[in-house]
């Protein structure tokens, strides 16, 4: 659900939300469970008790540029307990001082798993680390990597500033070699500013006073932190973009350090067999032809693996990667604009996926939990996810790539109801953050389209959506752009007449838009049938009650009937996709197919899968 609780166009909220005004509260106390430090979780998932300081997300965080080796581990996981203290934004970093508090990284400070469970606008993290001697042997450099920190992070090593990064949804890295001491522990301090309600920055659905469709804030370090040794010139990013002919990849790379006299060599493998090879100057595109190409699709999510070697003199940086071979486009099919995957008309049947957790908020408690939502989406017969107003850790996209889900990727929104208060600097910062996110996620096979604005949130004018769509298309012409999801509501109303997709929202719906002369058509949000399950709801939170049904039988019947309209009428109108709200409950929203704790599947999986598969089959006909 993305609307703001007021009745909006064509009975989208059915009037019920207005009448009840979010007044109902959570129906029952949740099942209680304690976390690693003895605190009681407000609502525990099936993975909450598995998390401890010794196993906080131990998996290598970046599958598309991986350097781990079973024989010689080439990375050090810094997830675990760090010293912690809130700040006031005025004092100097606490160099050489032991902080009184502690936090479990990488869980945001508002989460019970972090051990803090309280917001602060300013905060310090501190950790002492012994860097293995092997990391600096033979002239190697040591890089300190952060998956994401919300929102503004300044990093110091032994009192020296080594990085400054703004933007809570993209990774960053620093060469800390010059700041390392010859012996003994190294002091790492991260100073963070997290202005959830106090600045016009990307915050998504975070709020300090959550209610309805807005949720608890997630501040500070919220993705993995790790060290790894690299040569003076090393790979920073690898992207494999499928060629239009579906017989090759264009390989692009970004480097750390000097690129002079560097060569990149890439080998492609299919099930362990070499199927392609290419070499050339690093930093320039390579053409990597693939023998006997096998395409990626939800029906067959086949991934090629790659070994990349960067050479500069006698120094070598080796990494592994992966990608699927697929294209996505809008083409005329039967005289109408339709979305085609690998040249074939495809109905993108999606769930809305907010990516929130009752124990970790923005951060899934474990990698198995991260995989769970994606796998269950696939088991229910969907072929697409709309990742809503949030960017996920790299491993989320890895699981989407492997399991076979296409992804509409939203941009995290600016705060709502401030469109007329945005300065030129605010707009420029948003444009820059959008570009950073596109570049950050460019290599993910599962992502088939970008959505810069949802319902006009943070959209300062109607032309702004067209402007951002053009900006994204220039950065990434290989994917679709949905310039504005929900063109029929709510802030800055109006269709921008831009991008590849015309998108309406209709609760309960579904909406039945038709393609126009330039764009395919989808219902970007519909459904939202609400059913709370006592004992499995977020406590002490007003409920958004739109679309209420009385029991699980009614929820099943309602979902099947809602989706049957897409099968019987939407396809006939030339629609290319839809997004059902939503895969799980989230705090005050009880409209998930699963409860917020993921313990209860509220629908009959076989019945949902049957109507979903029938709709996808109907939508795949030419």
Automatic annotation (TrEMBL):
Family recorded in the similarity comment: Belongs to the glycosyl hydrolase 2 family.
Domain annotation Glycoside hydrolase family 2 immunoglobulin-like beta-sandwich: ranges: 272-326
GO molecular function: hydrolase activity
Protein name: Glycoside hydrolase family 2 protein
One of the Pfam families matching this protein, by short name: Glyco_hydro_2
Protein keywords: Glycosidase, Hydrolase, Signal
Keyword Nuclease: no
Domain Glycosyl hydrolases family 2 sugar binding: 105-227
Secretion signal span: 1-28
Protein origin, superkingdom: Bacteria
InterPro entries xrefs: Beta-gal/glucu_dom_sf, Galactose-bd-like_sf, GH, GH2_Domain-Containing, Glyco_hydro_2_N, Ig-like_fold, Ig-like_GH2
